[in-house]
Design brief:
Layout lengths: L1 H26 L16 H6 L3 H32 L6 H9 L6 H11 L6 H7 L16 H26 L3 H9 L4 H12 L1 H16 L3 H6 L11 H11 L3 H31 L1
């Protein structure tokens, strides 16, 4: 009965997700514009994609955001989880505060941080109002550091969830390990580095997949904060896809960009699947 009950979801997954993916890849080899059409042009859409400066800029921006987001999210989340794992007073309150931003949509987060980083009404205006007239912090209007302005909002939004995952992993470790480390005279930091973190390998892999998937589909935050500006300084692949499919009415180019994003997801999922399932077999 359980297998029968799962058939509708299996059918939905095959038709909607797998079918939609195959449909997108298929039409990425055509010259579809306003409507899909089977006018095959081979790899022409991909050649055009990788010779378009806008796409190259979006890839570079995503790489900068992705590396910084991945490293900082893991580090900050683990440090917060380790502090909460010390069973501090008011742990539930702090845990709720850290997790609360994840309950908000990226649009709300983007708009909130757009106001916070606004040079006239936000942090810069507040500090200058205190008398520090030389203070300058306007990342969203600076093309050189605009991605770091987005990064601040992204870290605020997503670090809480990863922290909770890390905290759950820490709470799953037997207290006898800590007792043995104290008996052997091993310091707290060294215990985390040499013992605890290696034991939390599955937790880190899960966190890595969640963070990476969020990085690849980055869109709402960019639209809410900068809409890709100034100029193309904060353009990202997901926004490139949406613009070409619904504004430029070039479905073939949008499908090609979508397929490249799909490929990047597959590159992440295959190592994860190997580490998870291959390791269990061994």
């Amino acid at each position: 009965m359980a297998k029968l009950a799962s058939l509708p979801m299996i059918f939905t997954a095959l038709v909607v997700f797998v079918g939609g993916t195959a449909w997108t890849v298929f039409y990425s080899f055509t010259s579809s514009s306003l409507l899909p059409r089977t006018d095959f042009v081979g790899l022409a859409q991909y050649e055009r994609l990788w010779t378009t400066s806008r796409w190259i800029v979006s890839i570079k921006n995503l790489a900068i955001y992705g590396v910084c987001s991945l490293v900082l999210t893991l580090v900050i989340a683990f440090v917060l989880a380790a502090l909460l794992d010390r069973k501090i007073r008011g742990e539930a309150v702090f845990r709720s505060i850290f997790l609360y931003p994840f309950a908000l949509s990226f649009i709300v987060t983007g708009l909130a941080w757009q106001w916070i980083l606004n040079p006239d009404f936000g942090l810069q205006g507040l500090v200058r109002g205190w008398g520090w007239e030389s203070f300058s912090f306007d990342p969203l209007n600076n093309p050189d550091i605009v991605m770091f302005g987005l990064l601040i909002a992204g870290l605020w939004q997503g670090t809480g969830l990863i922290m909770c995952i890390m905290l759950a992993g820490l709470r799953g470790i037997d207290d006898d390990i800590w007792k043995a480390a104290r008996v052997d005279g091993i310091g707290t930091v060294k215990t985390y580095v040499r013992v605890i973190i290696p034991m939390m390998r599955p937790v880190f892999i899960t966190a890595l997949v969640l963070i990476a998937s969020g990085i690849i589909k980055l869109y709402d935050l960019v639209v809410a904060q900068t809409n890709g500006g100034p100029g193309l300084a904060s353009e990202v692949p997901a926004k490139y896809v949406i613009n070409y499919m619904f504004q430029a009415q070039n479905l073939g180019q949008g499908f090609a960009a979508s397929t490249m994003m799909l490929l990047s997801v597959v590159i992440i999922l295959i190592p994860w699947a190997y580490l998870e399932f291959g390791g269990r077999k061994q």
